[in-house]
Specification:
Elements lengths: L18 E3 L5 H11 L5 E6 L6 H15 L2 E6 L6 H10 L4 E4 L3 H5 L1 H10 L4 E3 L2 H5 L4 E5 L1 H16 L10 E3 L2 E6 H7 L5 H6 L2 E3 L1
Parallel strand pairs: 1-7, 2-3, 2-4, 4-5, 5-6, 8-9
Antiparallel strand pairs: 6-8
Length: 205
């Protein structure tokens, strides 16, 4: 709804419906998970695309979570290709002990670049989608895109069979998954708590 594409989630109206992932709602959880891995870090960075319509709400959630975890969170705005290097340079300057990355289509399209920068700067980073962990990112927690795509396929079939998008509620994809890349953890000299490893849906060696 923040994008103005539908009137109401339960009655979209017009010709658009679909499946929306949990993104900003999970921002506090990303910070909590990173806190478990780097509990002594005084400062955590959070990469946000200010052009994303939900970023203002995300910033408010981050501020609330900041008080809960007891670590200062420094928000870095990145909206273009040339913003990545300065953002990571800032993380070095403020001696950030970790980084969270917003679930955002622009960031997703630069997945390999983000993972490479995190490795180059040796900063533990948690991402919103499993594809980042599979590409070498330390950890991811967020909506299962595989499950979301399955839901999209079901809706596509219903529409092809004659149902109107306006009558199909926008679905929230609520299945989430935690992935941990142990090779990246070893490269960073990190040891994951057994309790965290036990909660992982996937441990990538």
């Amino acid at each position: 709804m923040a994008l103005g594409l539908v009137v109401r989630l339960n009655q979209p109206g017009g010709s658009i419906t679909g499946v929306t992932p949990l993104n900003d709602e999970l921002a506090p959880k990303l910070l909590e998970l990173l806190h478990e891995v780097v509990p002594k870090a005084a400062i955590i960075g959070y990469l946000i695309n200010p052009n994303n319509a939900t970023s203002a709400n995300l910033s408010r959630q981050i501020q609330a979570a900041e008080r809960a975890i007891g670590q200062r969170v420094h928000i870095l705005n990145v909206s273009g290709e040339n913003d990545f290097e300065p953002a990571f340079a800032t993380l070095d300057q403020i001696r950030a002990g970790g980084l969270c990355v917003q679930g955002d289509t622009f960031f997703n399209s630069r997945r390999e670049q983000l993972v490479a920068l995190a490795a180059h700067h040796s900063i533990p980073t948690v991402y919103a989608f499993r594809d980042y962990a599979a590409a070498g990112g330390l950890m991811s927690y967020g909506t299962s895109l595989r499950d979301a795509y399955r839901q999209v396929g079901v809706y596509a079939g219903r529409i092809l069979n004659g149902e109107k998008p306006a009558d199909l509620p926008v679905q929230l994809s609520v299945k989430v998954e935690l992935a941990i890349n142990m090779s990246t953890a070893k490269a960073l000299g990190l040891t994951f708590p057994i309790t965290l490893l036990g909660r992982a849906d996937e441990v990538i060696e």
